[in-house]
Amino acid sequence: MQPRQRRKVPEGELCAVCSDRATGYHYGTPSCNGCKTFFRRTIVSGHTFVCQYNGNCDVNKNVRCACRHCRFNKCVSVGMDARAIQNDRDRIGPTKKFRMAKTEQNSSADDDQMSMSSMSPQRAADEKVIELLNGIENLCNTLRTCALDETKSVRETLASPSLLYHVGNIEMDHNTIFKELYPASMNDIQMWNIRELRLCLEWAKTFEEFTKLSESDQLALVRNFGFTFNILNRVFYSLDHGPDKIVYPNGAYILRQPQEQVKIPGCRSIYHRQMDEIMIPFRKLNVTIPEFAAFKASLLFNPDACDLSPEVKPEISMERTKYLSALFYFITNKIGLHDGVQKYGQLLMMAPSIQNIIDQNDENMQVMEVFGHFWRIDRFVKELCMK
Amino acid sequence: MQPRQRRKVPEGELCAVCSDRATGYHYGTPSCNGCKTFFRRTIVSGHTFVCQYNGNCDVNKNVRCACRHCRFNKCVSVGMDARAIQNDRDRIGPTKKFRMAKTEQNSSADDDQMSMSSMSPQRAADEKVIELLNGIENLCNTLRTCALDETKSVRETLASPSLLYHVGNIEMDHNTIFKELYPASMNDIQMWNIRELRLCLEWAKTFEEFTKLSESDQLALVRNFGFTFNILNRVFYSLDHGPDKIVYPNGAYILRQPQEQVKIPGCRSIYHRQMDEIMIPFRKLNVTIPEFAAFKASLLFNPDACDLSPEVKPEISMERTKYLSALFYFITNKIGLHDGVQKYGQLLMMAPSIQNIIDQNDENMQVMEVFGHFWRIDRFVKELCMK
DNA sequence: TGGCGACGGTCAAAGGTCAC
DNA sequence: AGTGACCTTTGACCGTCGCC
């Protein structure tokens, strides 16, 4: 289908993912049957995985099933291309289902009562939305551990294309890799703040509807959402060392009662609230990566964002609705309507608590700015977060 | 994947180990689920067993668990091959229906299908919840126009039974009745603030689960929710004179650009936001009174409310879920699943904006307190709203 | 047209789950 | 703690499609 590597026969070629014997070029990469099928299934189903360890598990023939997150990441990083996946393969006729084509097709067709089986058009769209979000989220998780150049201004960053599409070419930053648990220093916190805010911009730029906005509207959305993105990723991807620790990917951790060196005079600590009101609920609700991604997308597209021009608010609102619908579909499809409605409601109702924490953080940043001799706020952070 | 017997289906085949029904070829031998799992676990765990007898125990379906040594020996002797055992795989998560916080009243059997007709038991409960809320809301609307005695302290008010059950016996307050439109004075705003906050207490006390809480937990909830209640009622019940006016029941109105006499030095006006982010969306979404009531109830029961004791948080969370579920079913029952999901999502996602407005209001009140010579904050308001 | 290579689909047999 | 009915995931194999 895709003459990507035309006319080439792998010889004693090995799978680029797991070093098993390659059976050919699959999705643009020499790979074995297992990794080929694994990659397709992962993309098609929207299933997503969380690494139980530090996100850098070994992947080889013997242990390739041990960590699906790292296996998938390796698939992506060695160049497997999701665009080579054909979702519209109706052409395989002679399987079990015989065409009932023209006879009684409309018996159950447009009965728009709620039967899952007849929701195809909406569902296909939702599935596609989730799939896209999921792919981006995985790229984002890779970029989180990459070496990033010195941040330019927010405006310049918004104007350049998203790094996420070139994440395979960027080398890793060893400061982001887990080595051991240790109490976070202020430098750790600042480093991750800057990194996540940068990721937020790269992430936002992957939304077509976002890139179509004017510069000032883009700015309005990311200024509204930046720190939320930061905190949400911080707690969602925190390594799980119990309910009293937020652990960054590199092992730096923050305690419920923050260590002295990361306290800021005059500021109310919000770390315990990040644990109680976001991290723990995320875990209790069993929020998966695609759900998390859709939730974030619906928060990015906030029609009430400060300084957003009134004429784009309807589109922003529609985008929000799009991601909310996809989220609802995805959840209820997995765990059923009854439980899904509850999970969806509980997830959405985390938003006001998150907002309140962000508001407290804004206040803290004002205090830090006034008493700036304690900690200078980074230029990039200031540009993106200070009102 | 089939290193031994390829493409074969055992028919009435029996387990070579225990003569139970074989479920397939496992590790090279036709065997049942039990022996298959037993063999794998034994190999993986490295356990070794000692026979209590002579090492020649009988192994069959009924006694296969009697001697693990002899069972394992039989496994090996009939040809089970340890080389077919793989390395540990990744976790796959819950397989049974949802392992989350379970409710007492278990839902009906097939709640994972989108068929409204099979929800009767749950729906009956939801309907009852909505009916109750709606009745209270109507009483509340009557009480809004009644003459209220001088407010006591918040604690005293919480301790006494709700006025809403005696609303028929209270006479009207003519200051609350519409006579004409006129620009609100600061006195109007203060009067309505106090009145709504008082209503909030009377309203909250109608919830059985609320009255069962300790005084301090009750206080935590109403302090968290009081001003939200105030603002939500203000805009929801605003007489509709277009998108640029909030009109109190007595005709006093506030403009998008507030008149000079109600501006407070040092405070950012939040009236335009109340219009844009709450009043107009309520109208656009066609939110009905029962929906509005359920929404408020779900906001009252906020498990993240400041100073709430940790041990009641689960109950509070369950209450919230109860009202959210009722809200969802009420909406979808009226306008169908597709539109209902959207309306529900949009309604819930107003909550963060509302929270942000409340946070801005809190900040304004701090400013007013510091520069208190402009406007003194009422004692009751202060007790209920100042942090 | 016919061979070839890369798609998607299939299903026995792996491993994981959790009420008992 | 151990068991096993029931569940998801895996991957070798096969049919189909589109290119030379």
Automatic annotation (TrEMBL), chains A, B:
The keyword DNA damage does not apply. It comes from the Eukaryota. Gene3D superfamilies: Erythroid Transcription Factor GATA-1, subunit A, Retinoid X Receptor. Residues 159-387 form the NR LBD domain. It holds the Pfam family zf-C4. GO terms for molecular function: DNA-binding transcription factor activity; RNA polymerase II cis-regulatory region sequence-specific DNA binding; zinc ion binding. The keyword Ion transport does not apply. Transmembrane segments: none annotated. Keywords: DNA-binding, Metal-binding, Nucleus, Receptor, Transcription, Transcription regulation, Zinc, Zinc-finger. This is Uncharacterized protein. Residues 12-87 form the Nuclear receptor domain. GO terms for cellular component: nucleus. InterPro entries: HNF4-like_DBD (IPR049636), NHR-like_dom_sf (IPR035500), Nucl_hrmn_rcpt_lig-bd (IPR000536), Nuclear_hormone_rcpt_NR2 (IPR050274), Nuclear_hrmn_rcpt (IPR001723), Znf_hrmn_rcpt (IPR001628), Znf_NHR/GATA (IPR013088). Its main location: nucleus. Belongs to the nuclear hormone receptor family. It is found in: Nucleus.
